[in-house]
Amino acid sequence: MKKTLLSLAVVSALSISANAFTLGKLGNFEFKKYADNLYILPGPPMEPNVENEGFMNNPAIIESEHGLIMIDPGGNYNVGKKILAEVEKVSKKPIIAIIDTHKHGDHWFANKTMAEKYPDVKIYALQHMIDVSKAGEAQKWYDILERLSHNLKGTKEFQYPTIAIKNGDKLEIDGQTFLIHHPKRAHTDTDILILHVNSKTLFIGDNLMKSRLGGFDASSSILGNIKLLEDIEKAPELNLYVPGHGAPGKMHETIDPFLKYMKLLEEGAKEALEEDVEAYEIKPKVVEKMKDFQKWDAFEGQMGKHLQKMVEEIEALDE
Ligand SMILES: [Zn+2]
What we know:
Layout: H1 2-19, E1 21-23, E2 27-29, E3 32-35, E4 38-40, E5 60-63, E6 68-71, H2 77-90, E7 95-99, H3 105-108, H4 111-117, E8 122-126, H5 127-149, E9 163-165, E10 170-173, E11 176-181, E12 193-196, E13 201-209, H6 222-234, E14 240-245, H7 251-274, H8 279-288, H9 299-317
Parallel strand pairs: 6-7, 7-8, 8-9, 13-14
Antiparallel strand pairs: 1-2, 3-4, 4-5, 5-6, 10-11, 11-12, 12-13
Bound molecules: zinc ion.
The site of zinc ion has 6 residues, from loops.
């Protein structure tokens, strides 16, 4: 009898680990409940790599009466299968809608996995996001993510968003209300912020990161990003703030760190311009003030580039 129980215990332990969404040494990942009908799967806040299989964002699901509404389903088709398996542990209802926050593939390439299982799913994004993705951004991100994670092979057809939305839109989906805000230029020029009215949750996309830094490309505006986060903090506090990468939480604990990081860039860039020195010359002094951020993923690789871009943005204001 004892032996039977023991072997049963071993079998069930194995089957649990076989089902869990495990990423190497990073451990297990699963959806956590943040509100009545809101679940988020917080990804590891780091660059895409082989160990995380290209999963590092925060896919979210909102359960409505007849289905699930998903925000930023994940970084590629393959890891999307693991994310979908986790979705099904939360609810067996069909995914009826997806909203993609911006053009970067680490947030939306798993559209393909979800659409394969639910061909009727409606996928929303900004028109400009759809346009630039089709015009080459998707391919660019495919190549970046494949090079870093080796997990995209054989999945080259993109599932683009199918419905264009714009700033100020109000989406009513199966009893759930979403307000769409598009800051012209912040993290990129393709971003939307999504306020889920029912749960008072604001999805900020990559306009907010915690514990990791990402790139600011030519379409972005760090000054625009600062203004956006300051405006959010001036508004009445909501229940939950969800960054594109890093832990969701209350207003100040979630937004303040990245805002402070960008303000330190601005301060450093202004000082460089006043003293008429190059960004790299002022960099050590700025790094010194960034003790809180030095452990953030990609700090080494990104901070100098951010400071340089900040200098260029401030210079451009005078032109
Ligand atoms: Zn991004």
